[in-house]
């Protein structure tokens, strides 16, 4: 998929048979990305827009490493927020709950994360 798109772009640049060591792809479980690119042999690394425009493997969207990292950070933050929300829902407040008791209950649930 991504490999074929890179090869298509390189072929368009007049580099039909690059060395397999000229560029390296990785997939850490969140989609493929270019982890290494030999600029001196291949020219500038293709942008996500160039990769998305390549016809190979139509329908596969490519994101940059920073976009991927931001997405992972966002997912991690959402998971943490859900965990905190679930913990806080365990805190039962009554009309007689004092602010100190409320704070202690929240602190206990937070520490359990």
Regarding quaternary structure, what we see is single chain
* Share in β-strands: 5-15%
Overall strand count: 2
Q: What structural class results from the helix and strand content?
A: mainly alpha
Considering DSSP H and I runs of 4 or more, what fraction of the residues is helical? 40-55%
Outline type: rod-shaped
Q: Mean pLDDT, as a whole number?
A: 78
Which regions contain 5 or more consecutive residues with pLDDT less than 50? none
Q: What's the N-to-C terminus distance?
A: 40 Å
| Main sheet: strand order | 1-2
Instruction: Provide the gyration radius in Å.
Output: 24 Å
H-E order: HEEHHHH
Number of continuous helical runs = 5
Largest sheet, if any?
2 strands, antiparallel
Report on this structure:
The chain is mostly helical and 113 residues long. 52% of the residues lie in helices and 10% in strands. Strands 1-2 form a two-stranded antiparallel sheet. The longest helix is centred in the last third of the chain and has 25 residues, at 65-89. The radius of gyration is 24 Å and the shape is rod-shaped. The model has no long low-confidence stretch (mean pLDDT 78).
């Amino acid at each position: 998929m991504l490999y074929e798109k890179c090869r298509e772009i390189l072929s368009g640049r007049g580099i039909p048979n690059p060395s397999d060591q000229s560029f390296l792809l990785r997939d850490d479980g969140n989609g493929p990305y270019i982890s290494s690119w030999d600029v001196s042999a291949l020219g500038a690394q293709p942008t996500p827009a160039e990769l998305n425009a390549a016809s190979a493997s139509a329908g596969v969207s490519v994101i940059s490493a920073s976009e991927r990292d931001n997405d992972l950070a966002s997912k991690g933050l959402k998971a943490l927020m859900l965990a905190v929300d679930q913990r806080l829902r365990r805190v039962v407040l009554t009309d007689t709950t004092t602010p100190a008791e409320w704070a202690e209950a929240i602190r206990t649930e937070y520490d359990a994360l």
